[in-house]
Amino acid sequence: MAETRSCEFGISGMKRAAAADSFEVDDEIFVAKKSMLPTLAVAPAAWENDPAASLAGLRHEFGEHGGINMSIEASATFTVMEPETMRRMFTGELGPDRDFFIYSRHFNPTVLNLGRQVAALEGTEAAYCTASGMAAISSVMLQLCSSGGHVVASATLYGGTHALLTHFLPRTCNITTTFVDITDHEAVKNAIVEGRTKVLFFESISNPTLTVANIPELSKLAHDKGTMVVVDNTFSPMVLSPARLGADVVVHSISKFISGGADVIAGAVCGPASLLNSMMDLHQGALMLLGPTMNAKVAFELSERIPHLGLRMKEHCRRALEYATRMKKLGIRVVYPGLEDHPQHHLLKSMANKGYGFGGLLCVDMESEEKANRLMHHLQNSSQFGLIAVSLGYYETLMSCSGSSTSSELNSEEKALAGISPGLVRMSIGYTGTLEQKWSQFERAISRMEVDSTLFNKN
Ligand SMILES: Cc1ncc(COP(=O)(O)O)c(C=O)c1O
Q1: Which residues are modified to N6-(pyridoxal phosphate)lysine (predicted)?
Q2: Is 108 domain-assigned?
Q3: Hey, which of 137, 139, 234 would you mutate to test ligand 1's pocket, going by the most ligand atoms within 8 Å of its Cβ?
């Protein structure tokens, strides 16, 4: 019998020996009926208003030979001692909660461990990781909405999500979306059709405009009409915990801050165990049947980065606040939720987990695409402040002109509705080098802009 090692503060347990189909341990948890023990449920961890406390309360997964890091279960398929066990696994009588695995498109132990970490991070009962953020979003929408279903969504969303809701889901599944200004709660309420609207979808901090959603109020008004709330928290892991504020489901593009390395594409769905289990159902599960599975080796890599996510977020946010404050002093039109003049500054302060700051992204509005491009050119090629690239959450500063890149799926009317100006430069603030060194690089690029022309708009 193999033993699963665990920290004294975690949940200890005996693991089924490799290829053994029965247990020696007469532990209640192992004899619980499947219906009593959701496959994906995690033990509620300490929260203390800080996701770091929740993460630290999680069972530490040791390696098979006592390694301090968990082992990678790099198997696509799993063996059993008796054919009868296979039948019982397929009926759902035996599952991952009892260490019975079928096939890695279904459950994989390493991916499941990462899911436990992400669930602890978001304070949800369960989570499962996917091959991309879009896989997480599309799978949730398909699971929650049947053909003919209706969605109410924020008009300001990542371009891919906007296109999914505007073009793909109506064409392929007859799932339609009404887009609203998420800060206009009356409009949101009016758009939700009781009995028909299955999902209210928004980003906690919107891409790219950095509008902050009032998660508690939006959740309440959706729940009053029997509508589920799905929140994309890609821009603010650790900073905001949407499920703790009332949302039902939280989705992530792990490719961003959670990864931090800009080397992996990945996503997660966090929510009630009942939802996650339904998504893995052999007959009706969007994750099981569409198959946007995360590879176990990728899950291992990501799992090693979650323990320092909090430290990274604090530094991304600290620098973003400092730069935004200094940019404002220079007369630059800067949007940052940490600034007092941001329309939702106080709302964000009231919802945020203390000590993490106000997010690692800021936007500079250069008014025209031409000026935006010139600024980015100087910031990259004259002074090495950052890299012209889409994505976010990397240790280097990344910058892109949203209207012509990650929001280019929106037509000009949709961009205007979303509040995306043609000269909006989104910056994901990195933490390499010293803050002063990087700031002097920023100033140098601004001087080059001013030398180039007098077009730079001081106000
Ligand atoms: C807010 C947001 N959600 C979801 C996604 C999609 O994530 P992925 O690229 O991992 O599929 C992105 C990608 O840019 C994003 O910015």
Answers
A1: 256
A2: no
A3: 234
Cα distances from 65 to residues 72, 235, 314, 342, in angstroms, run 12, 37, 34, 52
User: pLDDT for 413-435, tens place per residue?
Assistant: 999 998 999 999 999 999 999 99
Residues 258 and 395 in one domain: no
**Residue 27 falls within a domain, yes or no?**
no
**CA–CA–CA angle 453, 422, 178 (5° rounding):** 170
Beta strands 197-203; 228-232: pairing state: parallel
Q: Percent of the chain at pLDDT above 90?
A: 86
pLDDT digits (tens, 9 = 90+) for 64-105: 999 999 999 999 999 999 999 999 999 999 999 999 999 999
Count, residues in the chain: 459
Instruction: Tell me which residue of 43, 63, 104 sits closest to 287, measured CA to CA.
Output: 104
Q: What is the pLDDT of residue 124?
A: 98
Which range marks the domain in which residue 403 is found? 309-452
Domain count, the chain: 2
Best residue among 118, 235, 249, 255 to mutate for probing ligand 1, ranked by most atoms within 8 Å of CB: 255
Nearest to 307 by CA among 56, 100, 90: 56
- The minimum-distance atom of ligand 1 relative to the CA of 157 is 1
- CATH number of the CATH domain containing 217: 3.40.640.10
* Residue 255 shares a structural domain with residue 281: yes
Neighbouring-strand partners of residue 130:
267, 293
- The structure's pTM equals 0.92
- Does 215 fall in a domain? yes
Residues 302 and 154 in one domain: yes
Residue 153, SS3? strand
